[in-house]
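Dig into what follows:

_____
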Amino acid sequence: METFEEEAVKVPFGAKSLDAALCVPAAVTDAHTAVILTHGAGGDMNFSQLVSLAHQLASHGFLCLRFTCKGLNLAYRLKAYTAVWVYLKSLQRFTVKRIFFGGRSMGCRAAAALARRLSEESEAAVEGVICLSFPLHPPGQTHAHRQRSEDLRALPARMRVLFVSGTEDDMCDRVHFDTTVKEMKAQVEILWLRGGSHGLKVKGRSEVSVMEEVNLKVISWIRNQAAQAP
């Protein structure tokens, strides 16, 4: 027996629409916590790691909406993420009280950018950000880390951020990352995957094993945020 249901949806986006999938917990009549997820530069919402996380979130009682946006321009991605956030809030069959933004690689850059913008307008718009393989810089171009981390450093102290990164990620120099975290005002937690690449691949481990670790961390982190909420 499935512990969640998944339905394909179309999110209005100007004159077009975005393909999305809504995962709904089957064991509850209403979901109060929701997570939005999106992919990196070369994938879509059916990227295996996003599907795994979305299904586990829904199986543990969280609403999860993941979407596809093929644009490689961050400003365009930000507009798409905004449209999905608006769509989620319009779903009247749920009483969503807490929303977390998340994504993988470029997707979490867009998530952080939207969280920054919304946090300047309202304290209740977004609870936290989940960053899977945050791309702090292009491979071999560590000088870009200041520009790439601007939105992270601007997040307010009330914001919560979870990073999941591989220790061998060639887009996340550890020294520059540690410096970035020290400069952030937000409340940060980090899961380092030993031997993990930017794609969260770990030599000698199956993707299922890696994602079990990642999913467990994300779910426990969200639950912890809810427990700490006033």
In short: The CA atoms of residues 55 and 89 lie 20 Å apart. The chain has a mean pLDDT of 94. The helical segments are 48-59, 74-89, 106-119, 145-148, 150-154, 174-183, 207-228.
